[in-house]
Write a structure and sequence with these properties.
The complex is a heterodimer.
Chain A: H1 28-58, H2 61-71, H3 74-101, E1 105-106, E2 109-110, H4 113-136
Antiparallel strand pairs in A: 1-2
Helix pairs in contact in A: 1-2, 1-3, 3-4
Chain B: E1 4-11, E2 21-28, H1 35-46, E3 65-68, E4 71-74, E5 88-91, E6 98-100, E7 103-104, H2 107-115, H3 137-147, H4 154-158, H5 160-164, H6 171-181, H7 189-196, H8 210-214, H9 221-241
Helix pairs in contact in B: 3-6, 6-9
The chains are: A mainly alpha, B alpha+beta.
């Protein structure tokens, strides 16, 4: 085979290695990253679902009841459970990141990272408890 | 004590081959030997043509970064004994063009590094007679973590965004920009923001987070970038709602 490679002064032929299409399967972190990117679709779905609920409430009793029975179908329920898992994953990523992204000083002292992440989780627990209380008998 | 381990070393000799090949070498494996010791043994006793970079042998110079069994590692800080009975695959850092064997071209990183002005920028230099620029231990703590970067480029090797889009300025350059932004003596954050607020700057990062995991000095570039994004967003909002001079 004839060698057809060309050389530039001081730099022999560089070897460039292309990134595989399936690079995101190479490491658990990469897979987690791709899942987090996909989670945006489910976050969007949660917003659409909420808007549909508001519209159904606005259009009266009959439409609201139809919306409820549609929501109870296995397919929609399954999508909503999946969405909840993805939204939680999405939220936890940013809660855990918060201490690195936000450096807060109070009285000239740095607030420990654990407290910043903890307050995010605390907020989630309080909001969830409030929603639970409203739904279950408030 | 005569334990030995096999190193599968990536070779690329442009005058001989157009693709990467692997060569197997059996090297001694004492408990205190790191990958770099294995490579030095090959160079001294088995094949003097093997090419690789190294200098300090103590995790400070940042020149011996390579891909070890698929992971970006400082070869001076990775023990052979961690890999049991082997074999251990040693390849050049990913995402950089290979010049020869385990040596990659780092020109792209060096050019990007200069762009973020990783030095103390002053609007007006104080005269020498004014003495040193003083700093309290608290002010030092603000940026110390980011100053630990040794430019080893393991984070670039681990970053798929840099692999897919080589224009991305990359984790270490942004972390080093933060190191100087957070320094109380520096006044160059505006100039750095101009470079980093471009598409290939901080916004190129999609927070894969692998840069932070592979960093041998716990710099946390991913955290630095997200903090930068938050600052940039707050600054934009502030200038929108409270324009200067209003």
């Amino acid at each position: 085979m004839r060698d057809t490679r060309s050389y530039t002064a001081y730099h022999p032929q560089w070897l460039r290695r292309p990134v595989s299409t399936y690079w995101w399967l190479e490491r658990p972190t990469y897979i987690a990253f791709i899942l987090r990117e996909i989670s945006s679709v489910f976050v969007a779905w949660s917003v659409v679902f909420l808007l549909l609920l508001v519209r159904a409430v606005d259009q009266g009793d009959e439409t609201y009841r139809q919306f409820l029975s549609w929501s109870a179908t296995p397919a929609v329920a399954a999508i909503n459970v999946l969405s909840l898992l993805f939204v939680l994953f999405h939220a936890m990523t940013w809660f855990n990141l918060a201490p690195a992204a936000m450096v807060v000083h109070v009285g000239g002292r740095k607030v420990p990272g654990l407290l910043i992440a903890g307050s995010n989780y605390g907020g989630l627990v309080v909001a969830s408890a409030l929603v639970g209380w409203l739904l279950l008998g408030g | 004590m005569n334990k030995r381990i096999t190193l599968q070393v990536a070779r690329y000799r442009p005058e001989r081959e157009s693709e990467q090949t692997y060569e197997r070498f059996e090297v001694p494996c004492p408990r205190d030997w790191v990958i770099l010791d294995g490579l030095n043994y090959i160079k001294d006793h088995l094949d003097g043509t093997l090419s690789y970079r190294w200098s300090c042998r103590m995790g400070v110079c940042g020149s011996c970064g390579m891909t070890v069994n698929g992971e970006p590692k400082l070869t001076c800080a990775t023990f052979l004994s961690e890999y049991g009975s082997g074999p251990v695959r040693v390849e050049p850092l990913r995402n950089f063009p290979v010049i020869r064997d385990l040596i990659v071209d780092i020109g792209d990183f060096m050019r990007k590094l200069v762009k973020v002005k990783p030095w103390i920028v002053r609007m007006v230099e104080e005269p020498l007679s004014a003495g040193e620029y003083r700093q309290t231990p608290q002010e030092l703590d603000e940026y110390k973590q980011f100053s630990m970067c040794i430019n080893c480029m393991l984070c670039y090797s681990a970053c798929p965004i840099y692999g897919l889009d080589p224009k991305f300025i990359g984790p270490a350059a942004i972390a080093l920009a933060q190191r100087y932004n957070l320094d109380s003596r520096d006044e160059g954050s505006g100039a750095r923001m101009e470079v980093l607020s471009e598409h290939e700057g901080i916004w190129g990062c999609t927070f894969v987070g692998e840069c932070t995991k592979v960093c041998p000095k716990n710099v946390d570039p991913a955290g630095a970038i997200q903090r930068y994004k938050l600052n940039a967003a707050v600054e934009t909002l502030t200038s929108f709602f409270a324009p200067r001079g209003a």
